[in-house]
Design a protein that fits this description.
heterodimer; A: 243 residues; alpha/beta; Rossmann fold; 26% strand; globular; B: 403 residues; six-stranded mixed β-barrel; two-stranded antiparallel ribbon; 12 strands; 53% helix
Chain lengths: 243, 403
């Protein structure tokens, strides 16, 4: 079952008077339950692609279907609601709210959904237990190590049992040991809960965790490399010619 | 609203206040409190001046209602009869008739003189309207039969050391001294100073009084008055009392103490009020700028956090709501603190009273003015908090997340 279906996705930034094409017509599809890695050199457009898929940015062209919804047509309010109800995020710099405790950070997306506070705290506690932070519930985020903060971030992404979790280089600020813990966690969630995960990475050793890798180069899919690595199952959609 | 909505605003605001920077919080509250004090301090003093002045007008100058001669007439004819009629009107607690005339008063010891209007009254009637009898600092109050005795104010009596005098005086008259009064009809008479009074009011304490009997014998003013003062049950009841008096057929000019006093202090109070309004406006600008800066810095420091909240699906109205709530909290604490400081200042100034030309004033907090300033402060603060919050919340998520 297709979870994400993207066709001819373009993103053009304006740097002063100059147009810079970060994505030049990307088409791909991701199946439900897949753990997909987006890889490529620096500046290739992999984070830009993730931001468009995760509705954190508005594409300049193309179409994104998530779980049967054409999210390209949603207005700002509906996109916010869609993010809340269907998507989870893990960022490179953890992106936690400093004035909230570990449990509050995790619970906040559930509270925003309008669930009773007690129920949100139960859900947050459960997911924090899963990521091994059951004893850190009442700590403020600055009291945690980088690896622990990233695990809180993962717990927050999972608390609403989203359709997809987007992770933007979640191990970039972590040492190898903590990186492995985070990746193991993603792998476990993917395997046990069938969670669809889309993760940007530039570390070659991360590939062993992915079901499939989408290589991006200069704003388009690197078909040659995908063929060579033999992991991609989705080619470009006919009719879309990359710029 | 189907989601957590503004409950999340409260949730975030409470935690931001609890775990935010305590120093900034305290400083902001203090600034708002001082703004509340600034906005109300001057009006508190003006209120004290007005209250004192009003009380002095009632107690020493006009009673609650003053009856004056008709237009083009210099005195009220048949004043005795009118006094008796007035005394029978319900709500009237005292009536006294005054006759005033221009004189020159000379201190025979040193030759110093002052041109003053001397007023006469019936000491018995006078006590039911004015309060001079309680303000005698030396000697005694006048009695009905006194004919060669005079009652003078402390400022008119003055001091032997001229530098101590606040107004031109007779240069140190004491009880028992004799002073000479030259009336406008040419009669010159020597009087013994029977008593000296001190009300603290500059205009009042430079007055001089003789009995009605004495004035009548000199100026032949029997049965007439230049004014009649009427005391009612309260200052607030002066208006209705005026109309009751008019309904009883009094044809002379009838004025309340408020109407009589308006002209004298009115201009000063208008100027004070203008100053007060300027001060209120400046204070509001200061408050709005402070709240704006505090919120703006707060928000700029949390720009990334706002981006994160938007990214995970918190609506921007909820985020703005949390900042507006924080501003409301700061404002509420500031207003309460300001109110307490204002009351503390009021208490201190009640114990250590300020001396004004009309006497020692007790500050009076105008609660309607205070309420208005609080409403204005809240409005200005909410707008000043809302604008920067909206500005940042409207930014693109990724721009905000970059900080």
């Amino acid at each position: 079952m297709t979870m994400i279906d993207v066709s001819c996705l373009k993103k053009i930034y304006l740097l002063g008077q100059v147009e810079v094409a970060a994505l030049r017509g990307v088409s791909l599809s991701i199946q439900k339950g897949e753990f997909v890695g987006i890889m490529g050199p620096s500046g290739s457009g992999k984070s830009t692609l993730l931001h468009q898929l995760g509705l954190l940015d508005t594409p300049s062209g193309g179409c994104i279907m998530i779980d049967g919804t054409d999210v390209s047509q949603l207005d700002d309010e509906a996109r916010t609601r869609f993010r809340l109800m269907h998507l989870g995020y893990v960022f490179q710099d953890y992106a936690l709210v400093s004035e909230l405790t570990v449990m509050e950070n995790v619970a906040i997306p559930a509270i925003m959904q309008g669930k009773p506070l007690a129920e949100c705290y139960v859900a947050a506690t459960r997911v924090l237990e899963k990521v091994g932070l059951a004893k850190r519930l009442d700590h403020l985020v600055f009291e945690l190590s980088g690896g622990e903060q990233q695990r809180v971030s993962i717990a927050r992404a999972l608390v609403n049992t989203p359709s997809i979790v987007f992770a933007d280089e979640p191990c970039a600020n972590l040492d190898t040991e903590n990186s492995r813990t985070v990746l193991e966690l993603f792998r476990a969630v993917n395997r046990e809960l069938g969670q669809t995960i889309v993760m940007v990475s530039h570390e070659p050793w991360h590939t062993e965790y992915f079901d499939r890798i989408i290589f991006i180069r200069d704003g388009v899919m690197d078909e040659e490399r995908i063929q060579r690595e033999g992991k991609d199952h989705a080619g470009p959609i006919p009719g879309c010619i990359p710029d | 609203m189907s989601d957590g909505g503004y409950g999340v605003s409260i949730y975030l605001a409470v935690r931001a206040i609890r775990r935010g920077n305590r120093g900034t919080l305290a400083l902001t509250i203090l600034i708002i409190a001082l703004v509340v004090v600034l906005m109300n301090f001057l009006s508190m003093i003006i209120g004290g001046v007005v209250t004192l002045y009003n009380q002095q007008m009632i107690d020493y100058q006009y009673g609650h209602v003053t009856i004056e001669p008709k237009d083009k007439e210099s005195s009220i004819a048949h004043a005795d009869r009118l006094v008796k009629e007035l005394q029978r009107i319900p709500g009237v607690t005292g009536v006294t008739a005054h006759v005033s005339t221009g004189t020159t008063i000379t201190n025979t010891k040193n030759g110093k003189f002052q041109t003053k209007a001397i007023t006469s009254f019936d000491p018995g009637d006078e006590q039911s309207v004015t309060q001079y009898q309680y303000k005698i600092i030396d000697g005694d109050y006048l009695s009905r039969g006194d004919t060669d005795q005079i009652l003078i104010g402390t400022l008119l009596a003055g001091s032997e050391d001229e530098s101590q005098d606040k107004m031109p005086s007779l240069g140190g008259v004491k009880v028992g001294d004799r002073i000479q009064v030259a009336y406008s009809n040419g009669v010159v008479k020597s009087y013994r100073v029977k008593g000296i009074f001190e009300t603290e009011g500059a205009l009042i304490d430079s007055a001089a009084f003789v009995t009605k009997t004495e004035m009548d014998s000199i100026m032949h003013t029997e049965g007439t008055a230049t004014e009649i003062l009427v005391r009612g049950t309260s200052a607030d009841a002066a208006g209705p009392l005026k109309y009751t008096i008019l309904e009883y057929g009094v044809e002379e000019k009838v004025k309340t103490w408020n109407e009589k006093g308006k002209g004298i202090l009115g201009d000063a109070i208008s100027s004070f009020s203008l100053l007060n309004n300027v001060m209120t406006f400046v204070s509001l600008v200061v408050a709005s700028v402070v709240v704006f800066i505090v919120t703006f810095i707060n928000i700029i420091n949390r720009k990334k956090q706002i981006g994160i909240l938007k990214a995970i699906g918190i609506r921007k109205q909820v985020i703005i709501g949390s900042y507006v709530l924080q501003v409301l909290f700061l404002c509420t604490c500031g207003v309460i603190t300001g109110f307490l400081i204002l009351n503390a200042i009021s208490t201190v100034l009640t114990i250590n009273q300020l001396r004004f030309p009309m006497g020692y004033i007790t500050p009076v907090i105008s609660y309607s003015g205070l309420a208005l300033s609080i409403v204005l402060l809240f409005m200005v603060s909410v707008v000043s908090g809302y604008i920067p919050a909206r500005q940042v919340a409207n930014e693109e998520i990724l721009d905000a997340m970059r900080g």
